[in-house]
Each structure stands twice: as C-alpha cells, then as structure tokens.
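hey
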C-alpha cells in the first residue's frame, strides 16, 4: 500500500529510505543523471536517477516519458543551497533513486495537462480522466471534499441524522420536467428520478426524526447553461418544531463554518436580509450581486405625467419606469446603442438615456423631456457632470429583468466587481404564487407544500406571500427553502388555490397526504446547491469544473458516450417502442 504523499516531504525527512509512487510530470536528461518530477495527488517530489546508484535499471529511467506511472525506491536527500526550488513545497529535498519499476506506460496525451489554460471542451470531456489530472480540477475536487466534510461535521455536531431517500420515485407535478425510468415488472408504469427529496424529508419529520440531512443526487430534465447540469447535488436539510428565524440562523452559521473549513476565510458579518420586493425594486432580481452599487432608481412617479407618450402611456397601462446612473460614464454613443440592443434581448422595447455634462442633459430624449422633469431626475438621482442615466419603461417583469442584466453588464464593463468579496444575503417573503401564461393559472412559486403567510390571503393569489427564503452569494442562489404546511386544512386550501382537485391531489400525493393525518409537527428546511457552492468558493464560473464527470450542454457524457441506444430486446422487456420520424419501431 502507498505509504507516503510525495508533496509532504521536508528537510526533517532526510536520510529516510522510502518507496514512492506517482506519474512522471517532467523529465530532464542531463547525461548520466536524469531528473524526474514525480507527481501524485499531494504534489511533486524531484527524483534523481543517477547511473552510479542505479546501475541495474538505469536504462528504464532513460525510457521514461511524461505520465508513465512508476514506483521508485530511494533515500531522501537535502538539496544543495544552489539547487533549492522555492516554487515547490518539497523544493529543499530530493529522492536519490536506488530502484525503479515502470508500473504502466502512457501514450502521448491528446492535450496539455500541465497548464491550466482553456482547452477544447469536447476533447477535455472525452478524456475527462486526463483533464482531472490538471492542477485546477484536482484542487477543485479536493475543495469539494472539504466542503462536503464541513457540511457533515456541522450537521452531525448539531444533532442532524443523515438519511438516504429513494432514487426511483413517483412523478409529481409543479416542477421541472422529470427524468422517467420505465418499469419492467409493471409494464406501462414509470418511476421518476427525484428533482429533490422534498416529500421524503417531510415524511421523515412526520416520522419524528426531528433533524434530517442528506447530500442528495437530484435530476431535472431541462435546458442547460453554465451553472446548471441535468444531475446535481443538494445538501438537503429539514427540522421540526422550528420557525423561519431558527432556520435562517442555522443556515447562516452552517455556511460560515463551511467557508472557514474549506477556504480558511472568516465571514464576520450578519447576513443582510431583503424581502423579495425590496430586492426586485433595488436590483431587479431576487438573487442580487451586492459587491457593487448601481442600484435601480424608481422613475415611475416622475415620468407618469410627462408629455412623452413612450413613458406616460406605458405607466398609465400599469407599467413602471426604472433607471440606472452610470457614474463617470465612459460609454460612447455607439456603445450606448449596443446597450439598447442588449436590453432588447430581455424583452425591453428600448433604452432611453440622458448624458449630463456642463450642467445640462443631452441626448435624444433631452430635447422632448420637460426641463422641470429633467431637474427632478437630476436631484432625485443625484446626477453629476459626467454621469449617464439609463431608463427602461414598460411591464414590470421586463423592466426588472432587463435592468438587472444591464446592471451586471455595466459592472463588468467598468470592472466594478471586487472578485475577492463573498457577499452573502437572505431573500425572504417570496410570492406564494406566480401566474403561468402557458397554463393560464396560478402555480406555486416554490412547491405546493410551502406555508402561505395566512389562509385568508389564499383568496388573493396575486397578493399572497409565502414563508419562504433563499440564501444568495454574489448574484447566485446558493440555496432556498420554506416553512412547510403541517395542517391538513391549510394544505387542502393551497391545492384549491392551485386548481388541484381532491382526486388529483390524492392521485399524485396520496401517501403524503395520508401521512399528514398522523400528528405532523411544524417543520421547515432548505436545500443548498453543493455544485454551485463549490463553483463560487473556488472562483470558477463553469459548473462543469466542479463535477467529476459532467454532461455537455446537450446532456451528453462524452467520456462514456451516454445517452446511447439500447438493444431491442431490452426495449421489448419494457414494452417500449421508439418513435423515429413519425414511425414506431419496436
């Protein structure tokens, strides 16, 4: 068994006879003496193959190439002062080899693993086992291990019990698209892979375990992006006999512990809290990045009485007007035009702008906007010479989404973001329901087991808030949860508000609704996205970097070539036919 870690040898270890293992990271032939940087997970140790001390198999050292896997026996020696390598933790020592065994040879690599430069994603994912040898990915995986360990240690020390819940579940509505698994034994029936262990963890509270956690695999069949994968990992937590404040306090202390244990950084502030509406009004989104200013300014009241119909008509039809002030503006006219095209991506009809120079506004709308309104904008928004005011007016949802994206773009364009900061915060008081234009009905913002602010407010779904919360870090949702419904009558009323009949509710959630009848404790919880936490704490912006074997944007695994066709006999066992180009194939 491997006894030593190559990267941990120091001067105190000199004169030890040791056996080390690893991969040839670099080889230098000096004629009669060959130097090899021998790499394992812990780091690099320089090995010296000297013909004088390695008479029997020096020719093996001459044959060594990068990524050969080898075993070396030798004696650890102190380097001379002139040979010390300050770039290596083991730079004071080297191993004088007395024996060499080549355990496995390596072909030439399809890409360079010795630099952390960007490489072709298709190639790196096909050869993921080589990609994982790179320092960057190796260090991310080690950090992921530390983060997992920190979660477990905190939760174990605070009375939580770790559970495993089923992977083969029942498909339920009110979420993303499920991955379905056909049943061979029960033909025509399907399991669903869990989008989260939500119902199971609530059942465990009914089962009186009081504190649950799980590092759980979850699955969603949805379009992918840089921070989303079809299978992902959640740290799932549930507690009985708690209120919202108890969970927020626990979550904050837990994350502070995780950050300290994995990065050695102290988070020494209390996490700020914003209601959902405050966050939308201030930042245009419910996961704001607060590492910089550029807060949204409300211009609705100022512009509602203008003679400019583009503003007045939109506001009178229920729209809003919001603006951003770019201090010390450096955008040219052409660049502002490109910003206009940018906000159109998010549904905005246009971007109005005013430049303030020499104590007056200039720009297209300055010619038509009343002077008194311009002066009010200057005073209310504290506009100074050199500033640029950007305005979007229209449907609230579009105004918020376009300005939230524009705010981030400006911050990146002007390097306003301090990348060293970790700005955590909580968002609370989410809407209980959101109207679906597709379904033509109100749907649960989170899930149908979330506690509403009151049973009375269920009659006004557009106004009803929920007892739900999210934790946000640097513009990303780290995790979220809610206080759950533990009262049968309340659950029935929520189903009613969602348009779910008693028959449909029993069909889809029957076992859970039955469980609610047997002394359900008040309970609540939350789930953290583990992959996203690793991504943010390490400082990468690609979720694939933090998952050992990720999928592509088309949900394909290039290394093992999944998904793939299966044998027709397997399909026959399942009673399944494949439709191709409108025709059935068995």
């Amino acid at each position: 068994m491997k006894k030593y870690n190559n990267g941990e040898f120091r001067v105190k270890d000199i004169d030890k006879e040791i056996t080390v293992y690893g991969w040839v990271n670099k080889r230098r032939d000096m004629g009669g003496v060959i130097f090899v940087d021998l790499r394992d997970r812990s780091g690099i140790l320089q090995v010296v193959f000297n013909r004088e001390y390695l008479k029997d198999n020096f020719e093996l050292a001459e044959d060594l190439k990068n990524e050969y896997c080898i075993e070396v026996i030798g004696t650890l020696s102190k380097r001379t002062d002139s040979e010390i390598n300050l770039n290596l933790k083991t730079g004071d020592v080297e191993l004088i080899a007395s024996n060499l065994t080549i355990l496995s040879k390596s072909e030439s690599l399809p890409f360079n693993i010795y630099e952390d430069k960007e490489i072709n994603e298709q190639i790196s994912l096909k050869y993921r086992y080589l990609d994982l040898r790179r320092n960057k990915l190796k260090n991310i995986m080690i950090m992921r291990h530390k983060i997992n360990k920190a979660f477990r240690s905190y939760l174990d020390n605070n009375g939580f019990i770790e559970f495993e819940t089923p992977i083969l579940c029942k498909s339920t509505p009110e979420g993303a698209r499920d991955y379905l698994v056909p049943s061979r034994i029960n033909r025509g029936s399907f399991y669903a892979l869990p989008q989260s262990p939500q119902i199971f963890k609530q059942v465990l509270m009914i089962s009186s375990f009081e504190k649950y956690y799980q590092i759980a695999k979850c699955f969603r069949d949805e379009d992918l992006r840089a921070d989303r994968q079809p299978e992902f990992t959640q740290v799932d937590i549930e507690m009985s006999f708690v209120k919202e404040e108890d969970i927020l306090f626990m979550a904050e202390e837990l994350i502070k512990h995780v950050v300290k244990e994995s990065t050695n950084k102290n988070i020494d502030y209390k996490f700020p809290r914003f209601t959902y509406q405050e966050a939308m009004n201030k930042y245009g989104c419910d996961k704001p990045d607060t590492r910089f200013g550029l807060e949204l300014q409300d211009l609705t009241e100022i512009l509602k009485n203008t003679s400019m119909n583009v503003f007045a008509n939109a506001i009178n039809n229920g729209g809003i007007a919001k603006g951003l002030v770019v201090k010390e503006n450096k955008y040219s006219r052409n660049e502002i035009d490109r910003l206009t095209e940018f906000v159109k991506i998010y549904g905005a009809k246009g971007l109005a702008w005013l430049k303030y120079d020499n104590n007056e506004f200039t720009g297209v709308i300055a010619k038509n906007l009343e002077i008194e309104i311009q002066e009010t904008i200057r005073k209310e928004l504290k506009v100074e010479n050199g500033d640029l005011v950007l305005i979007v007016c229209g449907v609230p949802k579009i105004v918020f989404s376009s300005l939230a994206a524009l705010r981030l773009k400006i911050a990146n364009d002007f390097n306003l973001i301090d990348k060293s900061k970790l700005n955590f915060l909580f968002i609370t008081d989410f809407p209980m329901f959101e109207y679906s234009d597709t379904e033509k009905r109100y749907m649960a913002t989170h899930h149908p087991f979330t506690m509403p602010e009151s049973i009375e407010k269920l009659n006004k779904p557009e106004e009803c808030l929920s007892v739900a919360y999210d934790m946000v870090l640097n513009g990303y949702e780290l995790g979220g949860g809610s206080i759950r419904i533990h009262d049968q009558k309340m659950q029935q009323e929520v189903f009613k508000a969602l348009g779910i009949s008693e028959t449909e509710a029993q069909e889809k959630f029957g076992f859970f609704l039955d469980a609610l009848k047997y002394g359900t404790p008040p309970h609540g919880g939350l789930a953290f996205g583990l992959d996203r936490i690793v991504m943010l704490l390490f400082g990468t912006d690609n979720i694939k970097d933090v998952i050992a074997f990720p999928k592509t944007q088309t949900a394909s695994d290039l290394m093992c070539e999944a998904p793939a066709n299966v044998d027709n006999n397997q399909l026959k066992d399942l009673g399944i036919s494949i439709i191709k180009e409108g025709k059935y194939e068995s």
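The chain has a mean pLDDT of 94. The first strand starts at residue 17 and ends at 29.
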